Each structure stands twice: as structure tokens, then as C-alpha cells.
UniProtKB/TrEMBL annotation:
Transmembrane segment boundaries: 64-84, 96-119, 139-166, 187-209, 245-265
Protein name: ABC transporter permease
Family: Belongs to the binding-protein-dependent transport system permease family. CysTW subfamily.
Topological type in the membrane: Multi-pass membrane protein
Organism: Mesorhizobium helmanticense
PROSITE patterns reported for this sequence: ABC_TM1
Alphabetical list of InterPro entries matching this protein: MetI-like (IPR000515), MetI-like_sf (IPR035906)
GO cellular component: plasma membrane
Tagged with keyword Cell membrane: yes
Keyword field contains Transmembrane: yes
Alphabetical keyword list: Cell membrane, Membrane, Transmembrane, Transmembrane helix, Transport
Domain ABC transmembrane type-1: 58-264
GO BP, one annotated term: transmembrane transport
Amino acid sequence: MRNFKTTALLLTVPASLMAIGLYAAPILQVLALSLTEPKFGLANYQGLFANAAVGRVVMTTVKVSVMTTVLTVLASYIVAFAIIHMSAGWRRISLFLVLVPFWISVLVRAFSWITILRRRGVLNSTLMDMGVISTPLDLVYNLFGVTVGMVHYMMPFAILLLYANLSDIDRRIMQAARSLGARPATIFWRVWLPLSLPGIALATLFVFVFSLGFLVTPALLGAGKTLMIAEYISVQISSTSRWDLATSLSTMLLLVVGVIVFAAMRSPALRAAFVARPQQ
């Protein structure tokens, strides 16, 4: 048994070295640049708190991330809950449809939303032809468009996380509650929902952290009008060559994400998501 564990540990060495080379080394380089560009010190970090533009970008990022997280987890919970209660055949089909977006480029999905939401796009044209609206609605290149695109991108991840959690819930508990005279609404709110809190917590953490560093979808659907941290950092590097600002903001983002994950992992609900339940 000890030899097996040693062998398994040795097999992880190549992947660990690759992770260090591809992730740890660049992160350390970014940290070094943030402290030495243009001169050594913490002036870059002090400047972040005095920069009004950075403050606006941070507020936009938090707002979009929170909205994306709430809408994604809510919609994904409904879908995962429905899939759990389908027959085996329909469940396989539904899970296949959930996986389909993973095979489509994020660029294709973003441009598809632009086609649908633009002023002369599919949605506005349909609503105008039906007489619902007289002038096109501004549905893209703003906060609404960015949020729609991000929710669409995040939902497959959240659905799979929630589906895994909901699949582990022992149905006999529901049957026991039903046999005791509990109504369906009471069973859901008092039994099912509390048991699914670990999955909700995990999906919430994943979507929120992912949203904080999202680049492609906000850049395309926001068109610079809804500027988030990742796009702002990209602009500072590629357009203005402000490496001092870009690296210090990147480091702060990494630090904030680390603190959020560390604090979240201390939550009993989230820790329970990683505890295997006994087989039904």
C-alpha cells in the first residue's frame, strides 16, 4: 500500500512541475513587476486606492459579478432540479444539451448574442414586427448585454455542479417527509433546499470568482462601455503600456480571489460539498 502511494505521488511530479512553470513562475514575475516598475516600493498599490478610474472599474466588476452569480445560480438550480426529476432517457438528453456549449467557442457565443441583441438584431426585429415596441431597445454594449452573455457562459458549469450535489441527496428523506403529511412546498423549503446548500455554495463561489476575472465576453458585449477589471488590465498592457498599474491591479485581484476562496472554504456549507455522502 505504501509503495502504491509513493508511486502515485511520483506520477504527480511532472504535472506539478508543469503547473509551477506555467502558473507559479508568471505570477511571481507579475508580483515582482508590481513592486519594481518603475521603481521598487509599494507606490503602485497606493496609487490604486487613489485612482478614480480603477475605483469605477472595480465597482462595475463587483456589480456585474454579483448580478451574474445570482442569476446564474438561480437559473441553474431550476434546470438541475428539473433534470434530477426526469426519467433516465430525458436526463441523458438534457445533460448532453448542457454539455453542448463547451464545444462552442466563447467568441462564437459572444457574437451570437450580439446578433440577437443588437438594435437591428433578431430580438428587436421580432418585437417590432409584433408591434410590442416602436423603437429598438438597447440590449447590447451595456450592462444588460454583458450580464446576459456571462450568465449564458456560466450556466453549464453551475448546472453540472448543482446536478452533482442534487444527485447525492437521499430521496428516502423526501419520502419520509411526504409520509408524515408534508406538502410539496414544505418538503422543498424545509428539506430539499437545506440539503442542497453545499452545492449552491460551491456553484456561487465558482461563478463569482470566475466572473471577477472574465475578459472575452465583457469586452465584446460591453464594447468598452462596461469596463471590467480583466479588460482594464488588458488595455493597460496592450495599449498604454502601464505595466505598473496592470501588474499591481492583477496582484490585488489575485489576492482578493485568494481571500474570498479561503474565507468561503471555512463555511460549513461549502466544506460539506466536498464530503462524500454514503451511497443510497
